[in-house]
């Protein structure tokens, strides 16, 4: 079974959204994928996604309220795909010995753009924007990586 790990700084805003979208796509299409997400920092370990991430996911029919943040471990190097949200995540992952790390913004024509951190945006609108970008990228990733044909 192929495995995918989405990584961001806190694992409460961006990566849980990616996790939720990927899981819902996998369920919808009956795909055998193991999907998880993790944080580079320790601050929010054990916490649910932030309120606005839960809210935007619910708006699009995805329930991420049961997810809990966890910190990245060395064992996470065994994931087939490790997907960073921004350049800082990518750099940090490489410094921690993760190889073959890619940015989610490499998909769906975003020219390797960073998924901005909505934690620092004003209010819900930032989460809507981030949801839209992550949704397009995850869907494109599933198609380009051939997950529908496994
Ligand atoms: P995320 O956003 O990386 O998308 O989960 C963040 C949430 C919290 C913090 C940083 C980023 N923080 O420093 O607490």
Question: Could you describe the 3D structure shown?
Answer:
The protein has 150 residues and is α/β, with parallel strands linked by helices. It has four helices and four strands; from the N terminus they run E-H-E-H-E-H-E-H. The site of 4-nitrophenyl phosphate (4NP) has 10 residues, from loops.
The 3D shape can be described as: globular
Low-confidence stretches: none
DSSP summary, beta strand count: 4
> Percent of residues in beta strands?
5-15%
Helix content: 25-40%
Mean pLDDT, nearest integer?
97
Structure ligands: 4-nitrophenyl phosphate
- Rg (C-alpha, Å): 14 Å
Order of helices and strands: EHEHEHEH
Helix/strand-derived class? Answer: alpha/beta
Largest sheet strand order? 2-1-3-4
Kindly, what is the distance between the CA atoms of the first and last residues, rounded to a whole number of angstroms? 9 Å
Given the structure, what is the number of helices? 4
Reconstruct the topology from this structure.
Blueprint (H helix, E strand, L loop, with lengths): L1 E7 L5 H15 L4 E7 L11 H9 L21 E4 L2 H9 L5 E3 L21 H20 L6
Parallel strand pairs: 1-2, 1-3, 3-4
Bound molecules: 4-nitrophenyl phosphate (4NP).
The site of 4-nitrophenyl phosphate (4NP) has 10 residues, from loops.
């Amino acid at each position: 079974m192929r495995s995918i790990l989405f990584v961001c700084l806190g694992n409460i805003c961006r990566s849980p959204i990616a996790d939720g979208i990927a899981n819902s796509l996998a369920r919808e299409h009956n795909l055998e994928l193991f999907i998880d997400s993790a944080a580079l920092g320790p601050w929010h370990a054990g916490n649910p996604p932030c309120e606005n991430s839960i809210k935007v996911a619910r708006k699009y029919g995805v329930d991420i309220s049961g997810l809990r943040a966890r910190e990245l471990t060395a064992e996470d190097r065994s994931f087939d795909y490790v997907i960073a949200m921004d350049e800082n995540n990518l750099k940090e992952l490489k410094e921690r010995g993760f190889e073959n790390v890619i940015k989610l913004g490499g998909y769906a024509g975003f020219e390797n753009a960073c998924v901005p951190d909505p934690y620092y945006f004003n209010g819900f609108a930032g989460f809507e924007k981030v949801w839209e970008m992550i949704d397009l990228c995850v869907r494109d990733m599933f198609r380009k990586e051939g997950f529908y044909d496994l």
